[in-house]
Structure formats: C-alpha cells, structure tokens
Design a protein that fits this description.
It is built from no helices and 26 strands. It is mainly beta and 324 residues long. The protein is elongated, with a radius of gyration of 22 Å.
Length: 324
Amino acid sequence: MSSRCMPSSNIDGANRHASLPDGKTASRLFAGAMKPFGWLALVGGLLVAGTALAGGDIEERRPLARDGIVVVKNVKGEVIARGWDRDEVQITGELGDGTRGLEIEGSERQLRIEVKNPSRHREVEETTLEIRLPSSASLVVETTSADIEVEDLSGEFVELTTVSGDVEVGGGGVRVLARTVSGDIDLDTVAQRIELNTVSGDVNARTGGEVAELTTVSGELVLRAEALLRGHFESVSGDMEIDIGLKENASITVASLSGDIDLIVPESMSATCEVESFSGSIKSTRGRVVSAKYGPNKSLRFVSGDGSGRIQVESFSGDVRVRS
C-alpha cells in the first residue's frame, strides 16, 4: 500500500539488471564495450511513500532495519551518505529549483529515495541530499553529474554509479563497487573486495581488503594495498602505479595497452613474477630483462621466496617498471 503527495513516475530502468551485487555486478563499464549501468530492483513488501516539494529544504525520517538497503537516485548535485547507530534513515538537504520533488518509497527492509526531475534535466538546479543510515546497511547510489560521498558504512555492499560525478568512499564493508565515466574515484577502505571502473576518470585507492579489481581506459590508476589475495588491474592508455603487499598464494594480473606500469612489490614476498612487453621497455630491480633475438619483445622472470604466489604483467607498448 502506498500514498503520495503528488503524481510521480517510476525510476527509469528500475527493472533492468535486477540483482543484488554479488561480486560480479549486473553491469561493467570496462569489458571491451560500454554496457548500461545496472540498477537494483525493488521487491514487494508494505510500501510507504512520500514526496517533498521542489525547491525547498528537506527533513525526512524513515525506519530501516540495521541490515536494510537504501537506494538513492539524484541526477545533479551531491549525495552524501554516512552511517550511524540508529535503526532509521534521516534525509536532509535542499531540493534544486525546477525539480518535481523528492520521492521516498519503500519499507523497513528497502528504501528508495529519488529526486524527480522533468524530462529536460538542464533546467533544474543542483539538489543536495545528506543521508544518515544504519552503519550496517547496504547502499546503492546512481547519479548523472552529482558527486557521491560515502563514509562509515560496514554493510554487505556499497554500489555507486555516476557518469561525470566524483566518488569518494571511506570506511569498511564487505564489497565496494564504484563506476564512473569521467568522474574521479577516491577510496580508502578495509572492505574485503573492491571493484572500481572508470573510462577517463582517475582512481586513487587504498585498501586493507583481500580482493581488488581496478580498470580504466585513459584515466590514471593508483593503488595502495596492504595484503592482496587476488588482484586484477587493467588499462588501455592510462598509467598505473600498483603498490601491493601479498598474502600467501596470491594471484595478481596487470595488463596495459599503451599506458605505463609501475609495480611495487615487497622484498620479502613469496611469488613468481613474469613480465612481458611487445615494444615497451622493462626495468626491474630484480631478475634480468631478456630481449628477443628477433623483434622488440622483452621479458622478465624472477622467483622470490618459495614462489607460491603468481604475478603476471603484460604490456603492448607501455613501459613497465618493477621495484621493491
């Protein structure tokens, strides 16, 4: 059952790619071709909806289970989400002039918050949403140009999607997934798994988790990881700086077409490292670089410790440097 203060319409594409994140998301920006952004389907339950009027201050509260899910959509402006120790969601901020209002719909298990806009988004002013939610809840945010900032969440997943907005994440959680086209991503987390994808935006990530997957087309990628078990890092033309510690039997792959790779690994690691480049240079403080007898190909291989882990680096024309 639902009630509304004014007419409203469904989220565009709300039923596309309907699945909860499970480490393999419903959509990816970088997988050989651009695919549409995924969205979280909202399922049954008792619905309670309300709409705040456009162009005014926002002050709303709704109950939410500690392990509930909050879904937010804001085209233009900013979304700021922070965890707290209450079993409720608090929504404050200011609606931009020209918007059709703020729609809040859902239950104590799942809550959807959407800034409603006319069909011509350029006519609206920016909307700022500041959301407090249970720290153990999960969060999904989708924007177009609005920036996204998330702090102090430790729930099952945080999934953030934007076109040109910047993304900033701090805190824990099990999985953090962020996707942008031209926006930058800045992340500092102890989440067990991170997956970050950009087209031209830069990525600056620090993680204490075990699994990391970072991909970019032309953006710069920088990663600091304390102890990875699995990692995959990929770029077309953007440069990458990967500074990682390794767990036992770790598996790491780094691949680039024309971007440079700077790989920093522990002196005391136990892993076998193999590097290949077609026309780019290879420099290493360990092992010996071998040039092919015919052609520009170069390779490097060295074993550290018992060699139980595996590091594989491939480049076509970008330069590769390996150091400790």
